[in-house]
Structure formats: structure tokens, C-alpha cells
Amino acid sequence: MTSPTPDALLGPADIRELAAALGVRPTKQRGQNFVIDANTVRRIVRTAQVHPEDVVVEVGPGLGSLTLALLEVADRVTAVEIDDVLASALPATITARMPQRADRFALVHSDAMQVTELPGPAPTALVANLPYNVAVPVLLHMLGTFPTIERSLVMVQSEVADRLAAAPGSKVYGVPSVKANWYAEVKRAGAIGRNVFWPAPNVDSGLVSLVRRAEPVKTTASRREVFAVVDAAFAQRRKTLRAALAGWAGSAAAAEAALVAAGVSPQARGEALTVEEFARIAENKQHEPEHEQHQEKDSE
């Protein structure tokens, strides 16, 4: 691999110059905060443990700060960008600053939530600076759609990072924690200061590492069935599971039966349960005979 030129990465002046040339003003609506510090993007790539065989998918590349740092190390990088102006400009930035790696870069101009396939080899890693307002759904969509992604490192708002990495029993443990844990071992992987962004956000950011489970959660229930229990349990998180799952099960008595069969106390609350326990509850839902056929059809 050809070593990159020392000034290949974007600095603060480069970012502002590019933005001015494109008439780009970062928008709050899309949660755009561009990383302007080369040391930070290199640190993200190191923390993500990107290696030369990796095919990395990046969501929301913006002006290309992290994209260039990823291209220094990975075999290939595919960037998914929704913004028309940013998407049209990125290939030219890559060609101008890292011409020797431009053929290893691909752009998908799309909303990440709509992406179901990517060009080239299957992705092995996901590395992204995710806007906080869509971070969790985008992350879960990518993990669910691309099972070849073994490692992910996402930069998100600090509170979102805490929620994703929370363990059962924590006050911030909830739907994002359980669903992320369905796919991966999740942990906080560092903090990012506000001054490395332009414009500087008024919230702190954190890195979250997700390493896909070597063994999927052992269950006969489908992901959709398990996630339905999770959603119901946390929709009314102050209630006991017997009450919170009444709508899901058809009645409080049916919810209690499923909980007892799963070995979970009907008086417990969702924040105390592991993903495996949610899966057991899903397995023990009693279906009406005439609904069984539909359930089989719906299972994934």
C-alpha cells in the first residue's frame, strides 16, 4: 500500500475552505458537526482496530475527514451520504487528497436507513460519526442488514453512548441497550471533546465499540418477536412486566404465564432483564391456534 502524503487529512482551514466553496452550512436538522482535527480521526481509526484487510462502511462522511483517515488503513471504504451537496463533492476530495487510494473508495448517495445493499465486497467494519437524532436506528439498521460487519465503532452524543453501553440494572438501560446487545458486545470506548468539531456542539460525544457476538442469542424466537417484547417492556418502564406486557401478550394473565414459563418474575421491570431473558419471554408467548400460521409466516 502506498503511504499517504502527510497533508492528506483535512485540518480546520481545509474544512472551512471546502465548506465555503460548496456553500455548505452545517445544519442542526441533520445533526451535522464536522470533525476538524486530524489526530482525532486517526484516533477513531485506531480505536476501531481497522486493519488492511477491512472493508469499512462509513455513514455520514460529511466533507471526508474520517473517510480519508479510514482510507489510509483499510482495504476499501464505502461511504453512505444523504446530503446532495456533500455526496457530489466527496469523490473529488478523495481524488485530490489521496489519488493513490481513490479506486478503493465508493460512494452510496442515499439515506442510510434505506440502504439494503452496498457495492463491492461485503463490509467487515462500520465506523461512523452519527448524528445524535438518528444514531440508534441507523446503527441497528446497519447491524441487522449487514451480518458481515464484525466490528463497529460509532461516535455519538455522550448520553446515547451511555444508553447503548448500559448494563441491566442501570438507570439508562433501555431499548437501545438491549437491541444493540442482541447483535454485539457493547462498551464505551472513550470520550471526544467538543473543540474537535465545527461547529462545536453543545453536547459531549462518546465512542461506542460493538463487537458482533460470536454466537447469536440462543432462541427459537425471531428477532422481530424478541424486539416486540423489548419495545413493550420499556414503553411503560415504571410498570411491572406483568402490567407492561399485558398488551403484547393479550392480557395481564397471559403476560404472567409467559413470564413464569420464562423463569422471570412477573413483578420485575424491563430494566433488570438481559437480552437472553427477553428472548425467553418471546419464546413463551401463548399464541391463539388460528394465529399460529401467521406467526410462522412472520418469523425471520
UniProtKB/TrEMBL annotation:
Reaction(s) catalysed (UniProt annotation): adenosine(1518)/adenosine(1519) in 16S rRNA + 4 S-adenosyl-L-methionine = N(6)-dimethyladenosine(1518)/N(6)-dimethyladenosine(1519) in 16S rRNA + 4 S-adenosyl-L-homocysteine + 4 H(+)
Domain Ribosomal RNA adenine methylase transferase N-terminal: residue ranges: 40-214
PROSITE patterns documented for this protein: RRNA_A_DIMETH (PS01131), SAM_RNA_A_N6_MT (PS51689)
Keyword presence, Ribonucleoprotein: no
EC class of the enzyme, as a word: transferase
Entry keyword set: Cytoplasm, Methyltransferase, RNA-binding, rRNA processing, S-adenosyl-L-methionine, Transferase
EC number: 2.1.1.182
GO molecular function: 16S rRNA (adenine(1518)-N(6)/adenine(1519)-N(6))-dimethyltransferase activity
Pfam family membership, one: RrnaAD
Residues that coordinate or bind S-adenosyl-L-methionine: N33, V35, G60, E81, D111, N129
Cellular compartment(s): Cytoplasm
Task performed by this protein: Specifically dimethylates two adjacent adenosines (A1518 and A1519) in the loop of a conserved hairpin near the 3'-end of 16S rRNA in the 30S particle. May play a critical role in biogenesis of 30S subunits.
PANTHER family xref list: DIMETHYLADENOSINE TRANSFERASE, DIMETHYLADENOSINE TRANSFERASE-RELATED
Stated family: Belongs to the class I-like SAM-binding methyltransferase superfamily. rRNA adenine N(6)-methyltransferase family. RsmA subfamily.
Listed name of the protein: Ribosomal RNA small subunit methyltransferase A
Protein's gene: rsmA
